[in-house]
Amino acid sequence: MSEFRRDPLSEHWVIIAPNRAHRPEQFDLESSRQVPRRCPFCRGHEGDTPGEVASFARDRTACRDSQWQVRVIPNKYPAVAGQDQDLPAPPTHPLYEQRAGIGVHEVIIESPDHVLGFTALEDDQVALVFHAYRERLRCLANDGRLAYAQVFKNSGAAAGASLEHVHSQLIATAVVPTQVQRELAAAQDYHHRHGRCVFCAILEEELRAGTRVVRETEQFVAFCPYASQFPYEVWVLPRAHASHLEDTADAAIREVAQLVKDCICRFEVALPRPDFNYLIHTGPFGRPTAAPPQRPWPHFHWHLEIFPRLVKTAGFEWGAGDYINTVLPEQAATTLRNCH
Amino acid sequence: MSEFRRDPLSEHWVIIAPNRAHRPEQFDLESSRQVPRRCPFCRGHEGDTPGEVASFARDRTACRDSQWQVRVIPNKYPAVAGQDQDLPAPPTHPLYEQRAGIGVHEVIIESPDHVLGFTALEDDQVALVFHAYRERLRCLANDGRLAYAQVFKNSGAAAGASLEHVHSQLIATAVVPTQVQRELAAAQDYHHRHGRCVFCAILEEELRAGTRVVRETEQFVAFCPYASQFPYEVWVLPRAHASHLEDTADAAIREVAQLVKDCICRFEVALPRPDFNYLIHTGPFGRPTAAPPQRPWPHFHWHLEIFPRLVKTAGFEWGAGDYINTVLPEQAATTLRNCH
Rounded distance, CA B254 to CA B242, Å? Predict the structure, then answer.
């Protein structure tokens, strides 16, 4: 069982998960490419992984046989676990806050074939991946012990991936992650002061300026944020105000999946190394005390952030909590906009 | 000229510094080791770098000739610059906060010889390095435009170093970095509620428990923090309450330098890869509004943090702002304590 510990100064949570040290590739920083003898994520090797929690067939229906196109399994080396356990009362300590490491850590296997890159998937397939995200979020939201689910993808060794078969992950926890809490607080504060969603205001400003926009589709906009932490960072937002990805309709799920794939295709054209992370910030499962129970929440707006892993964070970033970005976001957007 | 941009959601500052893109090694993530033809940091090659801002001889006196043992120069590819310029009034924008990238970015060359590792330096030499940190902080504190100086070391390619000759850096800015501001706010809050310094309370708790202590010296304690973000993370704190490294006496400067070297020696024995970052959190130059002008400030306590670079931060960490650490801090401390 892992545990959550909160740093009393930075107020970050840390998940102490010694069992993840047994991942075979850990600390093997030299090899940039794995050559698995037998890939546990390939069709036909289902017995090599923990039993699936969900599988989706080509027509998006749930399936329980070898016809799966997207398969969701528990992570074999989970950061959090104990889905069947009650959440114990946290111990009290005058300085050190602690929680049991209860939660859900899942792997979303994005293809039954040994495909390495998200951009090698067909449009139908990336749509199915995002459909799986939505269905897992809807399902986990019903677990009263869980407060949030972080969906993320590590693609390539530089992005922290340990297996090359195309996949993403989801970690659902009883605490709302620090970064999400800060975003929510900043968004709530902006809404309180200006009477509108800060993300809607950003979207309006980006569409007005145009200089940081990478691509617009009917329902979504991809742009390099004004204060991009990393070179070529891209955010994808729904145009219409929406606080939770779970509430997204089928057509929009398909559209955002294709737009994300298109952005990553642009990275592959423009950049020397395609490793990247993406992550989804959606509203927490519970409702914030000050907000009405109806969705969408007025102050929050779900979005997806993509970071190509071109640079290493170093001592300044860890100490300052601030970032040095060597590429002007307007220049990054111009480069990405012109990639076809 | 670079610029500071503040993300309206996370409230992080980002320094947009396109000129740093010209660093020769950038994006060269594959090579873990540089083989420089002619090292600009070696004695005799002083003409290959910008002119020095300070040099220190073996006896700690300032010197301006080839007898230097530690040499401080402006970074050739600075994140911030314009030391002679006035700080302009920031432009106003309803969403996007911006500041001129004015500040100081220096490199502290830690040996005139082509030494690669901090632990290969003699004790006198590491003491001289920390002496240089103190003198630079004292000097920069007199510049009324500067609010803070972040001292840090990137050692090895995995830690973000671009040159192998042993060195550290300092970035002084007109804004207090976000992470330092959050630490200060948390410390001020704790002091307000409990009437004492939170770092003194942590130190007392660590010495009482003992399980996370790596080494104690007369005036300093090295321990693995309760909520270590990274495997084998170590913090070094002065035992006696002290808010600013600049106020540290000569004997203590020598003692902390040797203790930091000793901790890194332990990493080299215990860990498969010695790359690491360290950074110093000291009090800002200015005085906080709510605190008395006398030093030490009652609520803040300077400290040094060391992070071995064993793991890559991935999508979860970037999205959550929280960390997964696979090594129990108590286990890390036991391992490091037993290294000789």
Answer: 16
